[in-house]
């Protein structure tokens, strides 16, 4: 089963993902951008470049995703493992959808749909996506504005895109109020995961 954690920068995904590692010791924990390949290194280089071309950046993130799929996700799913990924394809749909729209780099009507379509022929959709919902102000404050994505105005567009994704696939997404205290957020995530794992044949926490 493939479970992904999504949300704005600073929404608390990594905090939750790290706590889950104690509860699910047999699961495969992974992330995007990857931090163990040259594709991931290239993505982090682009994140640090304020003048990066938005279309080139989409394909850097997508190359990293393709490698992540073949190297980590597909083998783990074939082995029947529970896979928990801190960010995955929805980050591309929300973030690059917003960046491309702002840069006017592409002659398409709907930038989010374009990014979804790029993934469609090769990607594996998650079984469950836990969306940690925070307002852009809280997100930017918590994240500390350390990169070009962590600005309130940009995060507003990213959040609008996440809302579209939740509307498109209400059965895949579970929204959790991530402005709650960390313990309450973790409890809500654990409750969601336990319900999803019931009857899946995979072990509960
Ligand atoms: N529920 C919470 N309430 C208050 N602060 C939180 C909460 N969850 C996480 N934090 C704090 O917010 C900061 C960002 O958290 P974290 O790194 O988990 O977010 P993230 O979503 O993974 O961010 P990014 O996408 O930028 O990596 C950290 O300092 C963390 O301790
Ligand atoms: C996977 C992915 C990520 N991003 C953005 C979101 C963050 O600002 C950075 C790095 O992610 P991290 O969780 O803070 O390490 O990259 C993106 O724009 N598109 C993506 O596909």
From TrEMBL:
Gene Ontology MF term list: ATP binding; dTMP kinase activity
Reaction equation(s) it catalyzes: dTMP + ATP = dTDP + ADP
Keywords: ATP-binding, Kinase, Nucleotide biosynthesis, Nucleotide-binding, Transferase
A GO cellular component entry from the record: cytoplasm
Gene3D superfamilies linked: P-loop containing nucleotide triphosphate hydrolases
Enzyme class label: transferase
Taxonomy, superkingdom: Archaea
Domain (Thymidylate kinase-like): residue spans on this chain: 5-187
Record flagged with keyword Nucleotidyltransferase: no
Enzyme Commission number(s) from the entry: 2.7.4.9
Binding site for ATP: 7-14
Record CDD domains: TMPK (cd01672)
Biological processes annotated in GO: dTDP biosynthetic process; dTTP biosynthetic process; dUDP biosynthetic process
Keyword flag Cell membrane: no
Similarity remark: Belongs to the thymidylate kinase family.
Name of the protein in its database record: Probable thymidylate kinase
Organism: Haloterrigena turkmenica (strain ATCC 51198 / DSM 5511 / JCM 9101 / NCIMB 13204 / VKM B-1734 / 4k)
This protein's encoding gene: tmk
């Amino acid at each position: 089963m493939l479970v992904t954690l999504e949300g704005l920068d600073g929404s608390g995904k990594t905090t939750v993902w790290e706590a889950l590692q104690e509860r699910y010791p047999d699961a495969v924990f992974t992330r995007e951008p990857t931090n163990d390949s040259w594709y991931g290194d290239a993505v982090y280089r682009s994140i640090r470049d304020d003048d990066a071309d938005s279309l080139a950046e989409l394909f850097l993130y997508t190359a990293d995703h393709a490698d992540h799929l073949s190297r980590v996700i597909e083998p783990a799913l074939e082995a029947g493992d529970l896979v928990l990924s801190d960010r995955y394809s929805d980050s591309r749909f929300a973030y690059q959808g917003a960046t491309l729209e702002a840069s006017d780099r592409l002659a398409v009507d709907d930038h989010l749909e374009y990014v979804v379509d790029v993934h469609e022929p090769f990607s594996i959709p998650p079984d469950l996506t836990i969306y940690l919902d925070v307002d852009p102000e809280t997100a930017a404050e918590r994240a500390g504005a350390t990169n070009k994505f962590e600005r309130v105005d940009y995060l507003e567009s990213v959040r609008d895109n996440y809302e579209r994704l939740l509307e498109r696939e209400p059965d895949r997404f579970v929204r959790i109020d991530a402005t709650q205290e960390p313990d309450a957020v973790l409890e809500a995530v654990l409750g969601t995961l336990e319900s999803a794992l019931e009857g899946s044949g995979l072990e509960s926490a």
